[in-house]
Amino acid sequence: MSTPRRRLILPVEVFNREFDAKVLLACFAAERGFSVIVGSKREIHLKMDTLPQSIYLAINLSDRNIIVDSLLTKLGHRIAGGDEEGIVYSSPEVYIKEKLGAEVFKKPEIFLAWGPEYRHIWENHSDYQGAPIHITGNPRIDLLRPELRLFWEAQTQKLRKQYGQFILINSNYDRINNHRPGKGEDQQILKAAKADPSSVSAEDLALATYHRDLFQSFQAMASTIAQSFPDHTIVIRPHPSESKASWEEATADCANVQVVFEGNIVPWLLAAQVVIHNSCTTGLESYVLGTPVIAYRPLTSDQFDRPLPNSLSQQAFTLDELQTLVGISVKGGYEPDPSVSATQQTLIQQYIAFLEGPFASEKIVEVLEQFDNSLNDQPAMNMRAYLSGKTQAVWRRIKRQYNASFHMGNNNRQERHQYLRHIFPDIELTDVESRVENFQKILNRFQNLQTRRVTKGIFEVTASR
Description:
alpha/beta; eight-stranded mixed β-sheet; six-stranded parallel β-sheet; 14 strands
């Protein structure tokens, strides 16, 4: 009798953020004998009862996932805990408050951490129950390493040809500038405080006010930089959940500004002459790629700023300082300070593992292999729990499909559909195949892999037997 094939599910929440990295991880896993499901998190969750029992690599550890994680467990899937959203934060206390749910944190049987700092936080969380925590890095970092830069070459050259010499301003103000009016957390807090100041906490109001003021400072900065560097295109790349309209209004008088959100961020960072951000993951990514990067900090807060990406960047606290640093960078004159670089290298190693040596993807697969082997000694699945989970999953799918088709008004339905396509667009099998083929050529491996479409937004990567 043949040995059952190992199975792995890799959900993707934000296509442009995660999909390329998850396909890379799927290639490494399939090479080691896993049958890998990769695709839209939403579609995977809707159809979880139709998928074979697998190791499910969680995207985050927030309690908003408790229903899904509970159903996955009842259906016989095994959860490996990870966090795509938690790479930068203002403090461990805020990270725990915003990202770690008390109930969801109990679900994973193993954890996969970006680096030592995350293992430390998770181990000291009050709801941690002793599941093994492995430092594995993340496949998104693999795609920043020199060995895989060629993966981005065609996209990088296309952007340079399309936009010429450009300055990239990256925005992460979805809490205050959400594409759905009134839906951002900070928007709601400010609105509630205006109606009844006692209805919100002082800390939440302070954070919302800080984000609002930073956002307004960034809008003014974008116009100033556009006017100061008229021979350069200024590309503003909003967060996936941000409104483009607010940025377009703020820079309407600047002919050299374009507000664009498309594709993975990496080729944009490689093509840009300099990147401007504040407390954003792009600061970390630009640092790893070697792209000149500036944290513009017209306001500062020890409580709310995110130190990691800011510390890995040049820092400008005034518009004059920013203009000076941008001018040096676009002329090719930026030279890292060796003493600062040494400090930055020590810092990033606390947060990110496998920046060199074996790929993070290889370490993840190694850990998952060990976990899969340990499951052979586990007791048989609880059939009553499985049938209960199956029933709940089916009704959940029917209810969601009904609500999407009939319960929402036409405007809300259209807005919801546009947002979902924005987060994870309709893709074809060729979109997966082209990425697999690219990895095959660059790394000279994965030659025996095959892909197939399972259903809408869900694909399988396996190795031929």
